[in-house]
Design goal:
By secondary structure, this protein is of the alpha+beta class. Strands 1, 2, 3, 4 and 5 form a five-stranded antiparallel β-sheet that branches.
């Protein structure tokens, strides 16, 4: 979903951390760079548009009812402005 900048590795673009929310293990990815947007996302012939300076917060809940995924993608400044509220909302799950 993101391309690496010249001379960088994908590991340099983001940060992965694990935590517990209630008794559920959560994996949290925070990544920033050029986002490769496709619409509709799963259409084989959809055009890919490179959107520089974008950020994604992606979360995977590993619950007994199956994995659940939540993500927020947008311009870096917009995501930064809403990150604190997203993190608080995430930690409020029971």
């Amino acid at each position: 979903m993101f391309t690496t900048a010249e001379g960088k590795k994908s590991d340099d673009m983001g940060k992965v951390e694990t935590m517990k929310v209630g008794d559920v293990k959560v994996t949290y990815l925070d990544i920033q760079g050029t986002y490769l947007s496709k619409f509709p996302p799963n259409a084989p012939n959809a055009k890919t548009v490179a959107k520089p300076d974008h950020r994604m917060l992606a979360v995977m809940f590993e619950s007994k009812n199956g994995p659940f995924f939540i993500r927020v993608v947008g311009p870096s400044q917009t995501v930064e402005r809403h990150k604190k509220g997203f993190d608080e909302w995430l930690k409020s799950f029971k």
